[in-house]
UniProtKB/TrEMBL annotation:
Xref: Pfam families: THAP4_heme-bd
Name of the protein: Putative thap4 protein
Domain THAP4-like heme-binding: 3-154
Catalytic reaction list: peroxynitrite = nitrate
């Protein structure tokens, strides 16, 4: 019952289209599979794997938990990234989407500059059943800017 506002996320989602851009890098595309799994607690287990759409080489891996405060629409998303970043985002979630803003970002001591300073994410469940995720990022060199836009279809 506690998961009701976010239970629509449960399952495996495969990208239909996924592109990234940022002022300091060349635009790129990627393929991604994300999975949200219920563990019987007021949280979902989360996993993401992205790869190069041409070579199939792994690009970005994420693992974490999406937790909801029971009886509310308050959510916390705790995610570890394979390049040494750990992000805690908080916000709200309902049957149509999620709105998240980073509350803390930590990185390993030998992480590459520029440092990520802020992350904002918007998840939207579209009328056709597709999921759109937009990610904005601020670094030590660049103000808050859209970084990723991806559309997914449910595969399981």
């Amino acid at each position: 019952e506690a998961l009701k506002p976010i239970q629509w996320l449960i399952g495996t989602w495969e990208s239909i289209s996924a592109k990234g851009s940022f002022p300091t890098i060349k635009d790129f595309t990627y393929k991604e599979v994300i999975k949200f799994e219920s563990l019987g607690q007021p949280l979902l287990n989360y996993e993401s794997r992205s790869k190069n759409p041409v070579s199939g080489a792994p690009m970005h891996l994420e693992s974490g938990f999406l937790r909801i405060k029971p009886g509310t629409n308050e959510i916390a998303f705790m995610v570890a990234h394979n390049f040494g970043l750990v992000v805690l985002e908080e916000g709200t979630g309902d049957e149509q989407g999620l709105q998240l803003v980073s509350k803390s970002i930590n990185r390993m001591s030998f992480g590459k500059d520029p440092a990520v300073k802020t992350v904002q994410k918007r998840y939207r469940l579209n009328a056709d059943g597709t999921l759109q995720i937009e990610t904005d990022m601020e670094t030590s060199n660049t103000p808050l800017t859209n970084h990723l836009v991806a559309m997914y279809k449910r595969s399981e």
